[in-house]
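Pasting as-is:
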Amino acid sequence: MRLRDELPVDHRLAQVYRYGAGLCGVILLVFGALGFADRLSPFDTDGTRIAGMSTNGVLSLLSVTVGLVLIGGAVIGGNFASTLNMTVGTLFLLSGFFHLFVLDRPANFLDFGMTNVLFSFVMGLLIACFGMYGRVSSKLPHDNPYWRRRHPRQAARESLAARRRGGRPAAALDPGPDPGRADTEPAIAPARD
């Protein structure tokens, strides 16, 4: 299954991917900018702390770069933002595991501390969850393009049944009736003579 071709451009899931990428990108951008504001040396490992985490110039540069990439993904949106979120989230998780093993060793050139490792795990899970939202759940609604891609036969049957009833197929982009509104009663077809 190719992830980039499944979601219609204007599907409502695209907003989740876009806002998730933007939010996490801004957080990383602010952290990196605070590091640059303190004029940190690139590979300094003396424990300079910003926002409760140890940092240096290289970590600030990486934070700003990844933040800008995520903000760019938020601007593009859609499947690109979803795939980018899943990729960056996975990289954050791998970074957390790597830095967990190199704490207090010379290989820790980014000056990670335990709070950085925890932040990397939390941020990685958050970004990845934003990217996977609506894609990997076991109980996706039948109008979800990912569910339709995984169950093509049943989706085709439901679409055919909807066309025969005179309604729109389940693949339509209309989100359907809002369960919180009172005017969501199904329309009754007029009786034929």
